[in-house]
Specification:
This protein has 187 residues and is α+β, with helices and mostly antiparallel strands. It is built from six helices and four strands. A four-stranded antiparallel beta sheet has the order 2-3-1-4.
């Protein structure tokens, strides 16, 4: 079933926190709702769950891959095209160390950049509900993204928690435009 989203706009941060508590009591998971605000609030102001970040794993993973690639390239090249010069060993370690260092660092940085994009949930394919008043007028938005059979209950919980207005996500307007029906804006 496709996910739909509903946005509840709150003026007071206590009401937004109460909305999150009410959603949890109604058996909504922490990954099904998020808080949007244009004002920097300290983490945990609304009672949201602490995010589990895995960004520290990406540089290590990239470094291991880079070192392995460098090892394969340098050893493979020297063994495939052996060039014995003055009785020196075919696999010479000191020149290989430079390649190891460079490839380890390069892959570590590249994988970290992709990891940061992944952890930031970018690009965001599913754009949920949004209202410009979050940035322009200082409203606090609580977005609930759930299957369509649970969206009405979520909207009701947001209204009971003191939402100034609620708004369904853009996907509803797109479906209505295709079917030729008129949109019923809430808010």
């Amino acid at each position: 079933m496709a996910n739909k989203s509903v946005l509840g706009l709150f003026i007071d941060e206590n009401e937004a926190g109460d909305a999150l508590s009410s959603l949890r009591k109604a058996k909504y998971q922490d990954n099904e709702f998020e808080v949007m605000t244009g004002t920097p609030y300290p983490h945990g102001t609304f009672g949201e769950a602490h995010p589990k970040l895995r960004l520290h794993r990406f540089p290590i993973f990239g470094a291991v891959i880079g070192f392995t690639v460098a090892l394969i390239i340098t050893v493979g090249t020297q063994l495939a095209y052996p060039l014995v010069t003055g009785g020196k060993p075919v696999l010479s370690i000191p020149p290989m160390l430079v390649i190891f260092y460079e490839m380890t660092l390069l892959f570590s940085v590249i994988v970290t950049v992709f990891g940061a994009l992944f952890e930031s949930r970018l690009p965001k394919i599913f754009m949920g509900a949004y209202d410009e008043r979050i940035m322009t007028e200082g409203y606090i938005g609580v977005v609930v993204t759930v299957p369509i059979d649970r969206i009405s209950k979520a909207e009701e919980i947001l209204k009971k928690s003191g939402a100034e207005s609620t708004k369904r996500g853009w996907e509803e307007e797109r479906i209505l435009k295709k079917s030729g029906a008129k949109s019923t804006k809430r808010g």
